[in-house]
Amino acid sequence: MSLSMPRRAALLFLVIAATVSAQSIVAHRLNRSEYANTVRDLFGVDFRATDEFPPDDSSQGFDNIGETLTVSPALMEKYVSAAERIASRAVGGDPLPKPVLLNGSGRARRLGPSAIELKEYLDYDADYIVHANLIGHRGDQDKPVTLVISVDGKSVKTATVPVQISAVNRKGGGTQRATVEARVFLAASQHSFRAEFVDDADLQNIPRDQWFNNNVNIHPDNIEITGPYPSVEPRSVARELLLCDAASGPACVDRILSTLARRAYRRPAGKSEVAELLRVFDQAKTSGYTPAQSLQFAITAVLVSPNFLFRIERDPEPGAVARVSDIELASRLSYFLWSSMPDDELLALSESGKLHLPAVLDAQVARMLADPKSAAFAENFTGQWLETRTLDAIRPDPKKFPEWSPELKEAMRTETRMFFESVMRENGPISDFLDGSYTFLNELLAKHYGIAGVTGAEFRRVELTPNEPNGAQRSGVLTQAAVLTVSSYPSRTSVVLRGKFILENILGAPPPPPPPDVPRLNEEAVGVSQSQRQQMEAHRSDPVCASCHSKMDALGFAFENYDAIGRWRSQDGDIPIDSSGGLPDGRTFHGAAGLKDLLKQNMPEFARCLASKLLTYSLGRALNPNKDEDDRAAVRAVAAEAAQNGYKFQAMITAIVHSPSFQQRKGEPK
Amino acid sequence: MIVTNAIFRKALNRRTVLRGLGAAIAVPFLDAMTPVFAQSATPGPVRLAWFYVPNGIDMRNWTPAEEGTLEKLPSILAPLEPLKKDVLALSNLTSNWGRPLLVGAGDHGRAAAAYMTGMEVHHTAGADLKLGVSADQIAAAAVGHLTKLPSLEVGLEETRIAGNCDNGYSCSYEYNLAWKTESQPLPPISDPRNLFERLFGSDAAEPAAARARRLAMRQSILDQAIDDTRRLESDLGAADRRKLDEYLTSVREIERQVERSEKDSEQIDPGMEKPFGVPAEFPDYFRLMTDMMLAAFRADITRISTMMIGREGSTRAYPEIGVSDGHHPLTHHGGNLEMLEKVRQINSLHLQLFAEFLAKLKATKEGDSNLLDHSLIVYGGGLSDGNSHQHDQLPVLLAGRGSGFVSPGRHIIYQRETPVANLFATMLERIGVRPEHVGDSTGRLPGLSLS
Question: What is the ipTM of this complex?
Answer without folding.
Answer: 0.86
